[in-house]
Amino acid sequence: MNIRHIEVFKAIMDTGSVTEAAKTLNVTQPSVSKHLKLFEYALGFQLFMRAGNRLHPTPEGHALYDQIDQLYTGMDHLQSFAEDLKYNRQGEITIASMPMLAQNWLPKKMATFLSSSKRVSVSFPVQSSHWIMQSVAARQADFGLGLTPTNVTHGINIRPLMSIPLVAVIPKDHRLAEHRFISVENLEKEDVITVKNFDRWRFSLEGVLAWRKFKPERYIDTFSTHMAHELANNGVGIALIDLLTASSFGTENLSIKRFEPELFFEISIMTPEHWPLTQLAAQLINDLSEQAKKTEIEIRTFL
Q1: 123 has which bridge partners?
Q2: pTM summary value
Q3: Which end of the chain has fewer CB atoms within 10 angstroms, the N or the C?
Q4: How far is it, in rounded angstroms, from Cα 78 to Cα 4?
């Protein structure tokens, strides 16, 4: 079945005449008539009954047209689907994220994309950085956002995203609120709120505190930076959290102070080493990287 014959037949059915079909296809009337005759000969039955200069579709012609029209509709949908893929308006993607980013930063940065990409399905598993690394290596996630690992699992690539300093968040009426920065020694006999879910990064803070031989009044451990922030906001103690969280939530009753010695959350994008990224994933990674650069600058204004 010749595709040109099908195009000619459809044009005649759509326009109602050989003359208009020829105009639509930008060919001569004899050419249209020739293709129609060849198509009917190849099919072995008539598509039109001739009455003078007019063509009237046969029942077989109507039946064939219905099938061809469905085919063209499907092709239109296929073309639309391909364009959606090209412009990242169609598809599925899984972005694994550590809690620190998932609480506020990632939803805000993804909101515009999700609003303009109605046919893209997105999954956001929130897990530890170690889980994220393994998940990306196993291709259970298209890419991940987590703390830069010290021992990289085989099968992933690491790309720096942003570096976020640790800060001390304290109530504004606290005795240390006027200090320019908070040192380990300042925390002596204070209630100190820390976060347990930062994988091995926690050991860096514990090492500093142990080396300085500092003795808090008590430790209050949480599994969420937001929870640590809210405890400080309610006057429970001094929260040692990341500047991203500290600057993202209300600071009306709180002061954000630099912490001495300086400690940083080094956050990276993890991608599969031996598996190509989809165009959608690659575009999102570039967009998030640009947003991260702006975020690093913006949050510094809180110190």
Answers
A1: 94
A2: 0.69
A3: N
A4: 20
- Assign 3-class secondary structure to 205-239: HHHHHHHCCCCCCEEEEECCHHHHHHHHHCCCCEE
> How big is the CA angle at 204 (ends 207 and 197), to the nearest 5 degrees?
120
User: Under 8 Å CB-to-CB from 165, ≥6 apart: which residues?
Assistant: 242, 243, 258, 259, 262, 263, 264, 265, 303
Residue 147 corresponds to which tokens in the numbers above? 């703390």
Contact assessment for residue 200 and residue 150, using Cβ atoms and an 8 Å cutoff: yes
Mean pLDDT by groups of 10 residues along the chain of 303 residues: 82 86 88 87 86 82 84 67 57 89 93 84 90 90 91 86 95 92 90 77 64 76 89 93 90 90 92 87 93 95 88
Q: Please give the Cα distance from 34 to 67 (Å, whole number).
A: 22
Beta bridge partners of 257: 168
Residues 24 and 10: their CA atoms lie apart, in Å, by 11
User: Distances in Å between the alpha carbon of 113 and those of 29, 109, 287?
Assistant: 50, 8, 10
